[in-house]
Amino acid sequence: MKHAILLAAALMAAPALAKEHQVKMLNQGKDGAMVFEPAVVKAMPGDTVKFLATNPGHNAQTIPGMLPDGEAEQKGAMGKEFVLTVKSPGLYGIKCLPHYSMGMVAVVQVGKGPSANLAAAQGVKLPPLAKKRMDAYLAQVK
After folding, report:
1. What total number of domains does the chain contain?
2. CATH at residue 77
């Protein structure tokens, strides 16, 4: 009985440590058309970032080359919620595939900066509008 109580207490305490961050996928937001809001998320290892579908025309997925070492690319379905569980410290670049060329990108910084993969993330080739926004977002995660 004592072990069951300790196990139950441990299981209830663990989720309290992780935090859920919510990001909306929007046609129009405070930064203009085709945006994630917020576009910069600061999280800790073990947190989740939930990308909320506000209409069927968006998705969220990681950007190749903009992930911490050892992290696999992830892709959400069109018009569906996408949950990114961040395990490793560093930067996770995010895009909406249909609106990538229109600058629909975001960045998730995991852990306290500076991020080990910042230089690699800055070196990833992006479409011009996506690069303009991503450069501004990366300037916020130093």
Report:
1. 1
2. 2.60.40.420
In a domain, 9, yes or no: no
Instruction: Flag whether 3 is marked binding.
Output: no
Any binding-site annotation on 96? yes
Q: Is residue 7 part of a domain?
A: no
134 lies in some domain: yes
Rounded Cα distance, 137 and 19, in Å: 21
Going residue by residue through the chain (142 aa), what tens digit of pLDDT does each one get? 555 444 444 444 445 588 999 999 999 999 999 999 999 999 999 999 999 999 899 999 999 999 999 999 999 999 999 999 899 999 999 999 999 999 999 999 999 878 999 999 999 999 999 999 999 999 999 7
Query: Residue 93 sits in which domain range?
Result: 18-138
Structure tokens at 60: 């969220």
Task: Please report the DSSP string for 36-65 in residue order.
Answer: EESSEEEE-TT-EEEEEESSTT---EEPTT
Is 58 annotated to bind ligand? yes
12 annotated as a binding-site residue: no
With respect to residue 1, please indicate whether it lies within any of the assigned structural domains.
no
> Alpha-carbon torsion 23, 26, 30, 36, what sign?
positive
